[in-house]
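Cross-check.
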Amino acid sequence: MRFYLILFFCFSIFFIGCTEDKRKIPAGIIPEHDMAELITDIHIVDGSLYNIPQIPDSLAKHGLGLYLAVFKVHNTDTAEFKKSLKFYSTRPDILSEIYAGVNKRLDKKLDSLKKIKPKINKDSVKKAILKHKADSLQKVKPNIDSLQKVKAKAKIDSLKKASLKKKPHSSKKSKHKNKNALSK
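Predicted model, tokenized:
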């Protein structure tokens, strides 16, 4: 009889242990919804750091500050995040739900960026056209100035040539006059 009693208690404890609510989150663990938001922001920071040129210490210079800013926005720290991630890693069903929420959030942000992108491109094209016009005007202005300088220099040169042509004629005339005066 004693054997059956021990067997009964073992099965009872086993069933009670198996039916424990695995959804119950212990203290010090970030709730599922908040964890999904936090992981979303962390993935966005990861993506932005991927686009930064890989200069030595660039991750230490830019990355750490960005991650700390994300943790500050979500009122948490790295220790609590690591503890929560470790907890959810032991419960893959909950973690997969969290990542489903992360995917939904990222898709929603991507869709909103796709809606805004044509307007941004349109604005950037307008700015580029205006900049190009301004640049082309700046390029033309020195050319106009240099053209005016060339014309002025050519005019000065032509005046010098004209004055040089007149001087020999005037000297010939004076010689001719001197000869005529001497011959008279």
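The longest helix spans residues 92-183. The chain has five helices and no strands. Passed to J.P. for a second look.
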